[in-house]
């Protein structure tokens, strides 16, 4: 198993009066894609937002490449190489695709400063980004916006990608396109923590998996192991479904 | 990087044409529509031209003042009811600078007049910007995210500011006469166009052009536009929105100082309470425009300027609340303002 890039130890998060995470323990190995599964309200999005510093952990410790980032501000965490794609995608609708990409490339003052080879790599994965380069991002379809959100996250090399439900609301053909793109990112040794509800999507991509319920990680291990064990799937995901109902 | 691999001129022009086609022209068209509707009501073409130029000049001065305020609200959701104090401060600083450069201000030379006017504008901007920095740190920052407290404390800040102005410059009204060559009018047919109003229009358009260029052509401008839409995402991309906000607050205060000089010269008198008087107008403007929108603020300011001048001539008793009626009518048409900011 690879070394851990991201580690959460006993992380608790409160949002106002609500206690959402109840001691999350999670390890994200370097150069692998880790799936974070669980029912609605299990705490998956809160986990990503807590890692990103958008909500602060009230207890516990988060380390990135050995550095404690628990109390760091969001811009500091982003600058240490973490990219975040929220469930809402966070696209700047009034800005063009090009302007969205330029903002994500922190080191670039103009688009001419962005690495051409990297842009071409992104365009190969998502040809729509090239086609609609100068168009307002708000005019893109839902799938294209998701492609832009992922493209933005990878416009510069990052240590870790945090991606929240990229398949949500997308047509099957677009989901296949996203799966192909994530395979490409895996091949490029990118470390990804990906929240997903669609198990079929998750099983095709995940190297490792963690399942959350009621603000805790209730299972973690190899995705292949979970994919092959229908009894375990029924117990973990069925248990989650039952709790949800 | 060679951007031609990304976009050919053809795709660039297609995108630009598409953007022009998609642009919402209706709010912009309201400005000439209002002017056209006023023509038969006013009756005389020359009077209409005089009123229209006066309205556009007033609108552009109000835009200079309001543009910073709308970005401050858009970026950080801050309701700054103390914005008016920077207007008054700018105007009083101009009185002092004009006092010091009186020989230049009264000289019958356009260039010598400019030698008094430009330092007055720059000094007003520097002082208002510096006070804005202090105002943000000690008055606005402790109440982020708390609208009621923002309203109360920023209004309190404005009262303190007004009292400090009285301590420094006295409680009374002071004269801010126009420089010699900016007095009088150009006569076009039977219409009288005041020279200063043309200058005010020029300065207002220059500020608008500079803002459009900054917001569209620089990375800081892109960050401001992005921050107005989704500040959390801007932070997630690794930028400190707080620093950006301080910069915008200071720039907005400096512009209010410049607007104060323009407004003071427009009225030719300055009062410590002048900021509070203009505050109502600028809030109407940014609400009409769609909170956070620069183009919306321009459209709102021009409509407010024209409406104030037309109704002031046609129905002076109605003029007092004509702009509130205009705001109500526009909000009935577009409840989020004429150019609402996406994602908010």
From TrEMBL, chain B:
Top-level taxon in the UniProt lineage:
Bacteria
Q: What is its main location?
A: membrane
According to its record, how does it sit in the membrane? Multi-pass membrane protein
Coiled coil spans: none
Q: Which GO terms describe its biological process?
A: amino acid transport
Alphabetic keyword roster: Amino-acid transport, Cell membrane, Membrane, Transmembrane, Transmembrane helix, Transport
List GO terms (cellular component aspect). plasma membrane
Q: Does the keyword Transmembrane helix apply?
A: yes
User: Which Pfam families would you find in this protein's record?
Assistant: BPD_transp_2 (PF02653)
* Keyword match Nucleotidyltransferase: no
Q: Which GO terms describe its molecular function?
A: transmembrane transporter activity
Q: What residue ranges are annotated as transmembrane?
A: 25-42, 48-73, 85-105, 111-139, 196-215, 244-266, 278-306, 318-335
Localization terms from the record = Cell membrane
- Write out the similarity annotation: Belongs to the binding-protein-dependent transport system permease family. LivHM subfamily.
> By what name is this protein known?
Inner-membrane translocator
């Amino acid at each position: 198993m690879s070394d851990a890039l991201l580690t959460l130890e006993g992380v608790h998060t409160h949002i106002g009066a609500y206690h959402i995470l109840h001691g999350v323990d999670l390890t994200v190995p370097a150069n692998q894609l880790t799936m974070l599964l669980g029912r609605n309200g299990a705490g998956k999005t809160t986990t990503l937002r807590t890692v990103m510093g958008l909500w602060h952990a009230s207890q516990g410790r988060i380390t990135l490449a050995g550095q404690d980032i628990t109390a760091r501000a969001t811009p500091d965490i982003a600058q240490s190489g973490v990219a975040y794609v929220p469930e809402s995608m966070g696209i700047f609708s009034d800005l063009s695709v090009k302007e969205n990409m330029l903002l994500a490339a922190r080191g670039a003052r103009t688009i001419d400063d962005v690495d051409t080879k990297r842009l071409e790599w992104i365009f190969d994965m998502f040809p729509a980004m090239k086609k609609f380069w100068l168009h307002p991002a708000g005019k893109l379809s839902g799938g294209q916006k998701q492609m832009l959100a992922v493209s933005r996250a990878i416009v510069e090399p990052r240590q870790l990608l945090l991606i929240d439900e990229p398949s949500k609301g997308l047509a099957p053909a677009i989901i296949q396109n996203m799966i192909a793109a994530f395979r490409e990112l895996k091949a490029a040794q990118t470390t990804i923590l990906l929240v997903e509800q669609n198990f079929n999507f998750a099983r095709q991509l995940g190297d490792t998996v963690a399942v959350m319920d009621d603000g805790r990680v209730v299972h973690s291990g190899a995705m292949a192991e979970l994919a092959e064990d229908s009894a375990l799937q029924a117990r973990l995901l069925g248990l989650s479904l039952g709790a949800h109902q | 990087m060679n951007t031609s691999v990304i976009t050919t001129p053809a795709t660039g022009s297609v995108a630009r044409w598409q953007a022009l086609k998609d642009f919402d022209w209706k709010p912009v068209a309201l400005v000439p529509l209002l002017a056209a509707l006023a023509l038969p009501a006013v009756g005389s073409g020359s009077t209409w031209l005089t009123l229209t130029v006066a309205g556009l000049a007033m609108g552009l001065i109000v835009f200079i003042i309001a543009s910073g305020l709308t970005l401050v609200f858009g970026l950080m959701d801050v309701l700054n009811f103390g914005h008016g104090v920077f207007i008054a401060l700018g105007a009083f600083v101009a009185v002092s600078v004009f006092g010091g450069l009186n020989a230049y201000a009264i000289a019958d030379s356009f260039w010598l007049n400019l030698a008094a006017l430009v330092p007055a504008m720059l000094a007003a901007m520097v002082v208002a910007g510096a006070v804005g920095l202090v105002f943000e740190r000690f008055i606005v920052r402790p109440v982020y995210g708390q609208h009621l407290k923002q309203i109360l404390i920023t209004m309190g800040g404005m009262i303190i500011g007004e009292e400090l102005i009285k301590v420094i410059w006295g409680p009374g009204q002071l004269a801010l006469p126009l420089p010699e060559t900016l007095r009088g009018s150009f006569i076009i047919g039977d219409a009288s166009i005041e020279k200063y109003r043309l200058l005010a229009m020029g300065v207002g358009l220059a500020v608008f052009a500079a803002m459009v260029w900054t917001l569209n052509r620089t990375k800081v401008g892109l960050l401001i536009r992005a921050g107005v839409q989704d500040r959390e995402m801007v932070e997630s991309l690794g930028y400190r929105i707080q620093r950006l906000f301080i910069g915008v607050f200071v720039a907005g205060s400096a512009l209010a100082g410049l607007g104060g000089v323009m407004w003071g010269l427009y009225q030719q008198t300055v009062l410590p309470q002048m900021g509070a008087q203009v505050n109502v107008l600028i809030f109407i403007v940014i609400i009409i425009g769609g909170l956070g929108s620069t183009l919306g603020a321009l459209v709102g300011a021009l409509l407010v300027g024209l409406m104030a001048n037309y109704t002031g001539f046609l129905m002076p008793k109605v003029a007092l609340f004509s702009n509130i009626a205009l705001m109500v009518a526009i909000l009935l048409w577009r409840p989020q303002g004429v150019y609402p900011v996406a994602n908010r």
